[in-house]
Amino acid sequence: MATVKTLIYLIVYPGLLFLFLYSTFVEWYDRKLYARLQNRMGPTHTGRFGLLQPIADFFKLMAKEDIVPDRADRKMFSVLPAVGLAIVFTAMLLLPVWNYSLDRPSVTSFNGDLIVLLYLLSLPTFIFFLAGWSSTNLFSTIGGARVLTMLFGYEVPLFLAVLSPAVLANSWRLAEIAAFYRQRPALALVNLLGFVIALICVQAKLERTPFDIPHAETEIVGGTFTEYSGKKLAIFRLMMDAEMVVAAGLLATVFLGGFPGGALLGLVNFIVKTLVVVFFLSLIRATTSRIRVDQVVSFAWKYLAPLAILQLLIVILVKGLIS
Amino acid sequence: MKIGAFIPELLRHLFKKPATVDYPFQKLEVPRDFRGSPYLRPELCIVCRACERDCPAEAIEITATNEAEKRFRMVIHNDRCIHCAQCVDSCPTDAMQMDTRFEISDYDRHNLKMEWEYVRAVVKPKSEPKTS
Amino acid sequence: MKFQIPIGPQHPALKEPISLRMTVEGEIIRDADLRLGYNHRGLEKLAEQKTWIQNIYLTERICGICSHSHTTCYVQGVEKLMEIEPPKRGQYIRYLVSELERVHSHLLWLGVAGHEAGFDSFFMYTWRDREIVMDILETISGNRVHYGINTIGGVRRDLDEQQVKHILDSLAILRERSEYYQHLGTNEPSFVARLAGVGYLSREDAIALCAVGPTVRASGVPMDVRKDDPYGIYGEVPFEVCTADTCDVLGRTVVRIKELFQCYNIIEYLLKNLPSGPVAVRAPRRAKPNEVVSRYEAPRGENIHYIKSNGTDKPERLKVRAPTLGNYAATIKMLKNGFIADVPLIFAAIDPCICCAERAVALVDARSGQERIISMNALKKLSRQVSAGNARKREAEWPL
Ligand code: SF4
Ligand code: SF4
């Protein structure tokens, strides 16, 4: 019985199947929203309101010819998408949606899971870099170098911004942080600045406009993914969608009070809150134009990092006041 | 400079109807004088060959099928036609006309060919062929 | 660490084939080289085999965006050769379409600039509003792209009251929207950060390298054929030549937006003062032996057609100098010491129309400086030699 349960847990809910469906749904939501903000229609025909379009795209890519460049490191090149997907899906399991119970922590909820989650979210960036690097294509190589350069910019502010709520809540466990802010909603307002910083950094992490520099199509074609095609590209795209869900989930947990209400209501909460975060991400994407990689780094260190430190100082002050 | 100068405009359009049209399920009307494909009204053609001479794409082909009976055959190679309507301008009798179809693509270019076989008409030209 | 990256012949930033080779150091371009010849269509030769009237439609197809510019330039020249003068109303309609085309071309360019800078919302909105002017053009000429409104001796279609009213109404919307884009283009920080200071071309360089159109005007040189050598009705229409002195892509954007407003004024003037009468005169089929150079200010800059007639109904020679060709030399200058990220913007800022500019393949030997024309077979051989000499590289080098 336990085996069946574990299998269902891994494969159906919240494992592969659910994550796959939800990621594609979020992609649809993002695309539709982006299109409507631009006075376009967005996907309309595959399924009701075009809901199945991302899935159709996924299967279409799966069926396409899969080419590995001659000079690429074949093993590395092929294994990266799978590893990346695995990492992101593992990170997804850490979100306190499926392991909401505070008293009986399961394997995926432990003290310090916030750090692990952040760490797991950093890994895809390296996967992108390696993907670009192992393609040996010039455009990919430049893309890969840009991925890393950007990482130096946004990673520190992101960590600082996400850690400050944790400092205030005095816990490194996601479920506990969320519970803390649910009990004292007023304190969540203290982290408003951090939330904005984290939104911007997450946008950079997901490589979306204005930070879509590593795969800026008008400059370096497909960037990191120039050489990827077929199944591997499909998996990379799925991975990026899933990464968006995880990042949105992370922000919702630490800044928006998590997903209360047990298995069912918690799920509803999860969906609503991640969609709210994705709404902001889409809005940023629609409002801005792509900036240059040197501008990202200087922007991050000139504005984001000092502001993130300021946020941390505020949190420490507030903490002193309430205790 | 203002951060997010575009946001009000974007949000305003979020609740508006999209500007795009759901083609091919919905179609826009083309204007009245749209230049579609040329067609012939054989009852007016006096076979002056002005259209054949002026067509920049050499899409019009007129051959005599029976000299004695004054029977002629005109083929408009719509696959070569560039829809410039010069033939309409050149024609002295309004025998050449434009329709307003624009969805004329086909898998086989020969299906685009249009053919008429007719006896030469005796009509008085409105004017001399315009460009002779 | 230096290495070469190719942009084109096929590249998402280029809608047409051209090859840019750049030697870069990290993200910075040290040297750039431009190769043409991927889109040569033999148009000039073809023109020698077609009659004057057929050639109108041929020149129209030199370019999709400035189709009217090429026909007008050609038709102006042919009219001079045939010694005829189109009636006033015909001229007004002809240059009305010219200005409408300029509006659509500049709006298109704004969108492309937005897209190249990764500002897709801007792109979507400008192109949506460009549809207004496309619709006007479609109603007055019967087609969206190849208007085919010119004929030798005038224009082919007349305007009626309803159309005049329709255009004037649409102009109000376009004006309002252009003001909004002007406001937006100079206010959205991430967009301005991408445009300002990029692709610097000093006033002296612009003149020395014979840049044309908005590119030279953005370097502070008020050069516009419509003012310097007025053709058609431009002598009697009031308008200003727009310039900017920032010498960068932002300046080129500003010049184009300012020109939009000038275009609206010209269109309004033309419609309000539209004379009555016929729109065309009868043109002869032949032209006396003579030659003529016709100049025209296309949306991208000065367009020149040289036409030679020999007494038959066909031109003996038609030579086209499209504006893009005039801007290539300046582009190389602008690219040097820029960022890779700015290449699409700089290149797009001249509003390149590659198939306009493709005329002949001339290879310049870098060492001897000699120019020679090479046959296809020799080229193939050459390419084989070059690729055979290259060792296959496995180790890619660190580009940071
Ligand atoms: S529309 Fe133009 S191309 Fe077509 S048949 Fe008539 S003259 Fe020839
Ligand atoms: S120009 Fe008109 S009348 Fe003359 S051949 Fe053509 S269709 Fe017939």
Automatic annotation (TrEMBL), chain A:
<keyword id="KW-1133">Transmembrane helix</keyword>
<comment type="subunit">
    <text>NDH-1 is composed of 14 different subunits. Subunits NuoA, H, J, K, L, M, N constitute the membrane sector of the complex.</text>
</comment>
<feature type="transmembrane region" description="Helical">
    <location>
        <begin position="145"/>
        <end position="166"/>
    </location>
</feature>
<protein>
    <recommendedName>
        <fullName>NADH-quinone oxidoreductase subunit H</fullName>
        <ecNumber>7.1.1.-</ecNumber>
    </recommendedName>
</protein>
<dbReference type="GO" id="GO:0005886">
    <property type="term" value="C:plasma membrane"/>
</dbReference>
<dbReference type="InterPro" id="IPR052561">
    <property type="entry name" value="ComplexI_Subunit1"/>
</dbReference>
<feature type="transmembrane region" description="Helical">
    <location>
        <begin position="6"/>
        <end position="29"/>
    </location>
</feature>
<keyword id="KW-0830">Ubiquinone</keyword>
<keyword id="KW-1278">Translocase</keyword>
<keyword id="KW-0520">NAD</keyword>
<keyword id="KW-0874">Quinone</keyword>
<dbReference type="InterPro" id="IPR001694">
    <property type="entry name" value="NADH_UbQ_OxRdtase_su1/FPO"/>
</dbReference>
<keyword id="KW-0472">Membrane</keyword>
<keyword id="KW-0812">Transmembrane</keyword>
<feature type="transmembrane region" description="Helical">
    <location>
        <begin position="263"/>
        <end position="283"/>
    </location>
</feature>
Automatic annotation (TrEMBL), chain B:
<keyword id="KW-0004">4Fe-4S</keyword>
<dbReference type="Pfam" id="PF12838">
    <property type="entry name" value="Fer4_7"/>
</dbReference>
<dbReference type="GO" id="GO:0016020">
    <property type="term" value="C:membrane"/>
</dbReference>
<dbReference type="GO" id="GO:0016651">
    <property type="term" value="F:oxidoreductase activity, acting on NAD(P)H"/>
</dbReference>
<dbReference type="InterPro" id="IPR017896">
    <property type="entry name" value="4Fe4S_Fe-S-bd"/>
</dbReference>
<feature type="domain" description="4Fe-4S ferredoxin-type">
    <location>
        <begin position="36"/>
        <end position="65"/>
    </location>
</feature>
<keyword id="KW-0830">Ubiquinone</keyword>
<dbReference type="InterPro" id="IPR010226">
    <property type="entry name" value="NADH_quinone_OxRdtase_chainI"/>
</dbReference>
<keyword id="KW-0411">Iron-sulfur</keyword>
<dbReference type="InterPro" id="IPR017900">
    <property type="entry name" value="4Fe4S_Fe_S_CS"/>
</dbReference>
<feature type="domain" description="4Fe-4S ferredoxin-type">
    <location>
        <begin position="72"/>
        <end position="101"/>
    </location>
</feature>
<keyword id="KW-0479">Metal-binding</keyword>
<keyword id="KW-0408">Iron</keyword>
<dbReference type="GO" id="GO:0051539">
    <property type="term" value="F:4 iron, 4 sulfur cluster binding"/>
</dbReference>
<protein>
    <submittedName>
        <fullName>NADH-ubiquinone oxidoreductase chain I</fullName>
    </submittedName>
</protein>
TrEMBL record, chain C:
<feature type="binding site">
    <location>
        <position position="356"/>
    </location>
    <ligand>
        <name>Fe cation</name>
    </ligand>
</feature>
<dbReference type="InterPro" id="IPR001501">
    <property type="entry name" value="Ni-dep_hyd_lsu"/>
</dbReference>
<dbReference type="InterPro" id="IPR029014">
    <property type="entry name" value="NiFe-Hase_large"/>
</dbReference>
<feature type="domain" description="NADH-quinone oxidoreductase subunit D">
    <location>
        <begin position="118"/>
        <end position="289"/>
    </location>
</feature>
<dbReference type="Pfam" id="PF00346">
    <property type="entry name" value="Complex1_49kDa"/>
</dbReference>
<dbReference type="GO" id="GO:0051287">
    <property type="term" value="F:NAD binding"/>
</dbReference>
<dbReference type="GO" id="GO:0048038">
    <property type="term" value="F:quinone binding"/>
</dbReference>
<dbReference type="InterPro" id="IPR001135">
    <property type="entry name" value="NADH_Q_OxRdtase_suD"/>
</dbReference>
<dbReference type="GO" id="GO:0008901">
    <property type="term" value="F:ferredoxin hydrogenase activity"/>
</dbReference>
<dbReference type="Pfam" id="PF00374">
    <property type="entry name" value="NiFeSe_Hases"/>
</dbReference>
<protein>
    <submittedName>
        <fullName>Group 4 [NiFe] hydrogenase large subunit</fullName>
    </submittedName>
</protein>
<keyword id="KW-0479">Metal-binding</keyword>
<feature type="binding site">
    <location>
        <position position="66"/>
    </location>
    <ligand>
        <name>Ni(2+)</name>
    </ligand>
</feature>
<feature type="binding site">
    <location>
        <position position="63"/>
    </location>
    <ligand>
        <name>Ni(2+)</name>
    </ligand>
</feature>
<keyword id="KW-0533">Nickel</keyword>
